[in-house]
Amino acid sequence: MVQLKSKEEIAQMRPACIAAAATLNMIESHICAGITTNEINTLVHEDTIRRGGIPAPLNYHGFPKSVCTSVNHVVCHGIPGDKKLKNGDIINIDVTTIIDGWHGDTSRTFYVGTPSPKAKKVVEVARQALVHGINMVQTGATLGDIGHAIQMFAEGEHCSVVREYCGHGTGRAFHEEPQVLHYGTPGTGLRLEVGMVFTIEPMINLGKAAIKLLGDKWTVVTRDKSLSAQFEHTLAITEEGVKILTLESLLQNS
Ligand code: MF3
Ligand code: CO
Ligand code: CO
Is the pTM of this model over 0.85? Predict the structure, then answer.
C-alpha cells in the first residue's frame, strides 16, 4: 500500500532531503584521482552526522558502509573500499540521510578528472533520463508514463535501462511502495496523486541491460562490463505541483 503523506509530513521530509543533497554537493569537491572510496565514505558519514542526520545505508539489511559508491561498470550498491579512483573513472555516490525519522535519498554520477567519450555519453544520458522521468510526474499520470519516458529516451540514445532495480516510495522507511520502474508502457500502472513521495533513479548502461550480483551480495555490475551511470532525486506530489525535495532550488521555497 502506498503511504500518502500530508503537506505537513512532506515539509518534515525536507530537512533529510536537503541534508542528503548538501552532503552530495560537499563530496563533489573531493572527487579526484587518488582518493579511495573508503575516504569518500568517511567524508559522507561525518558530514551526515554534522548535519544532524544518520546515514541510512549503514547496517541497512547488513550493508557495511554509510554510502554506496559505484565505479565504472558497477551499476549500484558498490561498497566503499581501499581502491583509489583514477583519472577517467566515473563514480555514482548515493547518499541517504535520516533526520527526525524521515529519509532523503539522492545520487549523482561524477567524473574523475577528464572523462572519455564513452563516460560522457553514459553519464549525460543517465542525467537526462532522470529529467525525462521527472518531467512526466503530475497528478493523473501513471508510473508507466514515467518508465516509458525514461526507456524511450535512453534506448533512443542507444543505451539500456537496468530492469532489476527501481525507484521507490520513501518516507519513514527507506524503501516503501510503490516500485518506480524505469521502463514501461504509457497509461499503465499506478496513477499518481497528491501525497505521493518517491524516488526516480534510472540506472543506464552503455552496453546491454543485463546485470549480475557479485559474491559480496551487494555490488551489482553490468554483465558485459560496460559503463553504467545513475542519478536519483526524491520527489513529492503536492497540491501546488511536483517538488524535487532533494534539490536546494531558488524556485522552491519550502
Ligand atoms: N540508496 C539506494 C537507493 O537509492 C539504496 C541503497 S541500500 C544500501 O535505493 F543498503 F545499499 F545502502
Ligand atoms: Co533510492
Ligand atoms: Co539512493
Answer: yes
